[in-house]
Amino acid sequence: MQGAAWIGLLRRIPPALHDSLVLMTTTGFEIVLHRLIRLDRDFLVALGRLSGSTDQPKLLIIPYLQMTYLSFNKKMDDAEIDSVLGRPGTTPSPAERPTAARYQSARPEDDFEVIEFPKETPAVAAVAQEKLAAEQADSDGKGQKAQPPSKTILLARLRQRLADDIAKPPSR
Q1: Are 61 and 45 in contact (CB under 8 A)?
Q2: How confident is the model over 108-135, as pLDDT tens digits?
Q3: Would you tell me how many other CB atoms lie within 10 Å of the CB of residue 37?
Q4: Is the dihedral of CA 119, 93, 4, 71 positive or negative?
Q5: Where are the domains of the chain?
Q6: Whether the predicted model's global pTM rises above the 0.90 cut
Q7: Which of 5, 17, 24, 169 is the most exposed place for a label (fewest CB within 10 A)?
Q8: Where do runs of H (alpha helix) occur along the chain?
Q9: Which helix (H) or strand (E) holds 33?
Q10: Tens digits of per-residue pLDDT, 135-154?
């Protein structure tokens, strides 16, 4: 895929789904993206980490030529898929559709418009958290397993039980 095609695809993905993207490179590294920062003519700038690590996200600059494929690491319903890809037979809006002349010209730098994604504000983060909580509440009622209690709650229960046992008089 050429850079213009990657740019066109990445522009269609809503910012709320950026943290669920996984990118595979030609060298076989799988990168978990946390946030897209910028789409330039030849490379993508993002925050991410290598898959399988628990490192803090780092600034990554990835050339489009090194990208093999993208995937989403979460289950998506049909509405979300349609919001990203559009329905078959429909054409993307001019804002979503990169023009060949715009991205594949003979490299005059002033013809290219760098695409920057807005930083997440606290209000946007709160809305995203509410949406995630609502999705989880919806999915809880659909026969999925309940989440285990947190370690803090379990420790509090254990301490209470031990305190109750100490307070009881010994039985004979």
Answers
A1: yes
A2: 444 666 777 666 655 555 666 666 666 6
A3: 17
A4: positive
A5: 3-128
A6: no
A7: 169
A8: 3-12, 78-85, 100-103, 122-140, 151-167
A9: strand 30-39
A10: 666 655 555 566 777 888 88
